[in-house]
Protein 1
Amino acid sequence: MSPPKPRATATTGRPRDDAARQAILRATADLLEEVGFGKLSIEGIAAQAGVAKTTIYRWWHNKGVLALEAFLTAVSPKIAFTETAAPLEDLRAQVQRVGKLYRGKTGRILCELIALGQADAETHRQLLDGYLTPRRTVAKACLQRAIAQGVLRDDIDLNVMIDAIYGPIWYRMMLRHGPLDVAYIDALLDLALYGLTISPRRRPCPPGQR
Amino acid sequence: MSPPKPRATATTGRPRDDAARQAILRATADLLEEVGFGKLSIEGIAAQAGVAKTTIYRWWHNKGVLALEAFLTAVSPKIAFTETAAPLEDLRAQVQRVGKLYRGKTGRILCELIALGQADAETHRQLLDGYLTPRRTVAKACLQRAIAQGVLRDDIDLNVMIDAIYGPIWYRMMLRHGPLDVAYIDALLDLALYGLTISPRRRPCPPGQR
Amino acid sequence: MSPPKPRATATTGRPRDDAARQAILRATADLLEEVGFGKLSIEGIAAQAGVAKTTIYRWWHNKGVLALEAFLTAVSPKIAFTETAAPLEDLRAQVQRVGKLYRGKTGRILCELIALGQADAETHRQLLDGYLTPRRTVAKACLQRAIAQGVLRDDIDLNVMIDAIYGPIWYRMMLRHGPLDVAYIDALLDLALYGLTISPRRRPCPPGQR
Amino acid sequence: MSPPKPRATATTGRPRDDAARQAILRATADLLEEVGFGKLSIEGIAAQAGVAKTTIYRWWHNKGVLALEAFLTAVSPKIAFTETAAPLEDLRAQVQRVGKLYRGKTGRILCELIALGQADAETHRQLLDGYLTPRRTVAKACLQRAIAQGVLRDDIDLNVMIDAIYGPIWYRMMLRHGPLDVAYIDALLDLALYGLTISPRRRPCPPGQR
DNA sequence: AAATAATCGAGACGGTACGTCTGGTCTTACC
DNA sequence: GGTAAGACCAGACGTACCGTCTCGATTATTT
């Protein structure tokens, strides 16, 4: 009982104050943007949220899960797939949208949260389940529509496909060895779709697709 | 003179004790492996190296640059390009070697150092200059040999090419959403080289190419 | 609020732990006796008291005020005036008692605290208010009784009188140029009371005066 | 041999650099005035004197003896006895001169040096031999002249006499519980000379003496 | 209505590590 | 051999947060 776990149910007693919860998440998100995860402190959050440290520790095990929840709450709404008739164009639009997001502070924070997950299994799991997997699932659906329409090979593991598309985006986001701009992402998608090797076929734009 | 910067030159006075320097770097590398960057402490390093804290602060601004230097000193020798007649095979071998390294603790530490670079420009610069850029330079040379031999397209920015190949490796190293094993890397290289889209050509390519 | 001042009142929050306070004062007094103020360290006190350094800094600005409070707490009870019918004998007894105390470690510590007060106004004030003034007040009352009984001149500032009596005691305590023994103190009192100059009268004074 | 003792004689090698010695003493005296003994640091002295720390440690065991020597060098010349035909007036003039000196920074420093002597026997000895004893010797001579002239009692230990005169001065210098001004010193001398008790004789100013 | 129970704020507590300062020692090159 | 420069080990400094622990006050449900 000593580790303060989030209560599953509490039938009696004073109910959880949702205003405090919101204030904490908000303060965390703000500070995360302002100073980054590295310099985030529970005391700072408590002060900014006008809340006692106890209240934070009561509901979140550690800085990581709190930061993560705050991050997810703030960022998740900003990325969503559109769904049109042309799956590859959907994909291209979505990747561009992600790229734009990752260029900024969101990318910086995300990177810190990933690093955090290296040491703490729970943070890692939460990051995957709460952020990565849902987005990959949507992306898979998009790719499957493309396969169904016969514009993509059907002999490759979807997970590998997605890695090939998103991997380089994350790579540049984290290493920052070059710009993560529209042109780069476009070139990258071309490469992923048509390969590096010399071949008779190019991306000859099936008439009407582009 | 109050900010303790690494001296550029010191013609007089007691010279720097290289034994202490080595001990510090060694202790740092060991602790980095043992507990990760997150739980690395200067006090711990000083104790393990048998050195005063001041000696550390005299030569390294902060934990980041020290950890980075220790990391580079320890890891750099472990990755090198072979050079044979078949550049694409060189590439494949090298990527597999990198993949193997990133599967383990090295990957975990690297990921923390990257996150660190998000907030501190100097750490970021040092990571790029000391680690990433040299490796990319070698990789570029390899790709250029392949282009010269006519097995790779010559109309694509080399930086984008390299991103397409290495990006997904790093992606999996950091997110750990799937195994970073030999089969994955092989599949990834095939994809990068031949593309996702449906084409008459497949990898066991035109006779005589391999 | 950044300078950690002793709180005036705290209506809310966890109340101050008096056990910790006592332990700190006790440890300080002990170490003061053992090693003197010069080698007193907050870390040492914290360790001996089984207390965190922060707890000390929370309630005492610096080593000086802590040492002083510990000193006063430990020493004050040891000196008190007796009150008999013969004020001059009361005085003589009290001065001898003080002399005995100052011969030992108490004197040594007191001397260090006085030196400390030279640089820090607050320490100085606290030393005067907490130690010196109360004792001088009592001594004044004693002298006034003597004056009322007609055995002491009534035309001299009481403060000067007291200085004349106690000054030489402190002088020898601090300079240690000679013994601070019973004989010395007796001789001193005779001198103070009857003067240095040649006069017909000697201490076993005119009949009827005592 | 490890404790660096001041060399007694050095028949060979480079002779001691007196310029360095002077610079060190001067810097020490200056810093002593400026920040007091408590915040005096060897590093500061070395920096201000343009001298290596080694050079200081070679010639002085510790901060105390250095500070003391610097103090004596700077202060000694400021106090000297005059010698006239009226010993008691000489005394009065000298005590006033001492009082004036002790009112200022000299007193503050002196007090710190005395405290220092509580813990370190050598410092204490040096303070007595170098400062106190010579001054007391001169004062004794003065008193003896007064005794020879028949204006002072000859049945009292000279040491006690001197304590009775100088003790209260030091007392006020160190405790600062009241002003150390001309009037105070005058009153004090009267008291010391003529006593506190009621007697037919007052200081009736032997004609021509005052 | 009272009792019970969990929440909340405030803030003290024992700790760990921080980055700095100074004390003394040593090592080197120069004079 | 003395000296300036400065690196070295050692250890205390005062601060920032950590995660835990009382408190008194508040807000519900259950008797």
Note: Residues 2, 4, 11-15, 17, 41-44, 53-54, 57, 62 of chain A lie near DNA strand F (CB under 10 Å from a C1').
Protein 2
Amino acid sequence: MEETQHTDLNASTEAKIKEAARRVFLKKGYAATRTRDIAEESGFNLSLINYYFRSKEKLFDLIMLEQIQLFIISVMGIVNDPLTTLEEKITILISHYIDMLVKNPDLPIFVLSEIKENPESLVSRLGFDSPHFNPFIVKQWKEKVMAGTAPKVNPMHLVINVLSLTIFPFIASPLFRNRTGISLDEFNKLMEERKKLIPIWVKGMMAVG
Amino acid sequence: MEETQHTDLNASTEAKIKEAARRVFLKKGYAATRTRDIAEESGFNLSLINYYFRSKEKLFDLIMLEQIQLFIISVMGIVNDPLTTLEEKITILISHYIDMLVKNPDLPIFVLSEIKENPESLVSRLGFDSPHFNPFIVKQWKEKVMAGTAPKVNPMHLVINVLSLTIFPFIASPLFRNRTGISLDEFNKLMEERKKLIPIWVKGMMAVG
DNA sequence: GTCTATATACGGATAGAC
DNA sequence: GTCTATCCGTATATAGAC
């Protein structure tokens, strides 16, 4: 280790700037953030951004990449666990997502907006394009199909439904809270309830179709 | 009528620029679009944008407002129809949304991104903050509650679920299609299936909780 | 490493010819 | 109404002092 590298309060300047940039980019998106905003948020001078990261774009790419990788890695452990059943995995995944989203409510719209603008550039570097991406959960699903106990609807619908029911509320949260007048705390309480409800609902969906 | 005003191919320059702006804004968002992009997309000169609309911001506000109003008006007819039951309304709403989203897949992420950045400015002008906003569907719901036939889960969950299952697939479409490799046609066919499936699923959810 | 000052480019907007 | 040329503020990036 060439420098003192912490991630806590007395982190390096580089780390502090990166963290400040993460907050601003996630809040405003790439185009709407000015390097000045990042400088201000970090408490350091404008020029240090270029000193450490060369350019706004490189800094952004770095953050986006880290953000997505973090996300993927955390999910990998769950979908690859040979000790849990398929149903358990789904329940755990939902709970895990909701915890993460309560902490990072801006993440989904950030990632999905930026991917829409940049259709190819980043998704390709995600790492689960590789032929090795064949997690245990896929095996378990195939077994269900072989045993004839899989649902009759196109399984894509079920994947879409789990993600929709889990992620969308956070994307619509600003509009939703504005309309209903409920507080952030009340909203988060609703999301907490959904940890139990979504798995039940999804189980019900499997019987349909 | 002071000028010839069409909305078809030989529309006025003003209308053409507005339509070009709509396309570009919806695709890239406010911050990432340059007035030069709009000029190019419209086939007209840069200065005409300011000639007709004074500024980029005014043009954007106009489009955003029209977009949202269009959306609300189209929904009002459905939720205020005294001739349909509550269940029918939900089914019709879902079908209506999906049709609209197939035609304007960029709309949800556009509206939700811009609202997130601009928490108050526009939502307040929406028009359904008024005390007159008490559509027939609310009455029907209240009757259900009085009769004791309403579901036991917090009804907010059901509203969230309908919107999630309907809208989210379109938001995630770029990522989803990229990952699965399915074409836009196949995707739209999936969404067509959901017109029938979502009402069934939602009905099932009401029994839970 | 961190700051101040500055170069350079870009984007929104306007003046003025036609 | 539509174009060309241009102005001017702002944002990124760098040079150079400390």
Note: Chain B touches chain A through 47 residues (CB under 8 Å).
